[in-house]
Amino acid sequence: MVTKKKIRKKYSVLLLRPDTVADIYGQDTYYAHVKALSVHSAIAAARRQVMKVDNYSEYKGYPTDYFVLLVTAGHSGDIQWC
């Protein structure tokens, strides 16, 4: 029997930080590059990453406090806003 190896793909995820950690509410974002099996697991990985960076434990809130703004396939470069 041949087992198929699951390949993790690269994703870029843009998250909006919650008001409890944002410097300017509605304008403080986090851009993560992760490897995951699916879009949903990429979002979860990005949320875990930002929670660690922000020292935002589940005692203070929930991973879903970080709102998903954008998910793209691949590790995209820095976003340039006009």
Topology:
Layout: E1 9-16, E2 29-36, H1 39-54, E3 67-73
Antiparallel strand pairs: 1-2, 1-3
CATH architecture title = Roll
The tally of structural domains comes to 1
Proportion of residues in β-strands: 25-35%
The chain-level mean pLDDT equals 87
Strands of the largest sheet, in order across it? Answer: 2-1-3
- Which CATH class applies here? Alpha Beta
Helix content: 10-25%
Rg value? 14 Å
Shape: globular
What is the number of helices? 1
| Sheet with the most strands, sense and barrel status | 3 strands, antiparallel
Q: State the order of secondary-structure elements, H for helix, E for strand.
A: EEHE
At the fold tier of CATH, the topology name is Ubiquitin-like (UB roll)
Report the structural category.
alpha+beta
Distance between the ends: 54 Å
Q: Can you count the beta strands?
A: 3
Low-confidence stretches: none
Describe the protein in words.
The chain has one helix at about 40-55, and strands spanning about 10-15, 30-35, 65-75. With about 80 residues, the chain is an alpha+beta fold. A three-stranded antiparallel β-sheet has the order 2-1-3, covered by helices on one side.
Spell out the key features of this protein.
82 residues, alpha+beta, Ubiquitin-like (UB roll), three-stranded antiparallel beta sheet, 3 strands, 20% helix, 28% strand, globular
Q: What is this entry, summarized?
A:
The chain has 82 residues and is an alpha+beta fold.
